[in-house]
Design a protein that fits this description.
It is built from 1 helix and 8 strands; from the N terminus they run ββββββαββ. It is mostly beta strands and 116 residues long. A hairpin with a 5-residue loop joins strand 3 and strand 4.
């Protein structure tokens, strides 16, 4: 009997349309939703819902026409992508294929809100 091929994780092969910047592990979430940020295409946010009902960012998708890889770092080619890369908690580190890892933005306590 022939063994079935396993499906590759999104962004792991490097042939996709987007760079994936992971900020939180998928295991924390039970449901996912993709949202366009700014103009259609370009930069998209993958939001995840936790089992307690709260939503948070799982990863960011940056279209390859809006950024490129230089060495092991991701370099923005558009204003949308530059804004996203500045807003992350750390510079995206290359994992492999089209996948990058970054820390989420710092949490702001309720007493300090609204932020300036």
């Amino acid at each position: 009997m022939r063994a079935a091929k396993r499906r590759a994780k999104p962004g792991s092969v490097g042939k996709g349309r987007f760079f994936h910047i992971v900020v939180r592990p998928n295991a924390q979430f039970v449901r996912f939703r993709v949202q366009d940020i700014g103009t259609r295409g370009g930069v998209e946010r993958v939001a995840g819902q936790r089992s307690n009902g709260t939503w948070d960012t799982v990863k960011w998708l940056v279209e390859k026409t809006h950024a490129h890889v230089h060495g092991k770092s991701l370099v923005a080619d558009s204003a949308e992508a530059r804004k996203l890369l500045r807003s992350l908690g750390s510079a995206p580190a290359h994992i492999g294929g089209d996948r990058f890892q970054a820390r989420p933005r710092a949490k702001i306590s309720e007493s300090e809100k609204p932020t300036p």
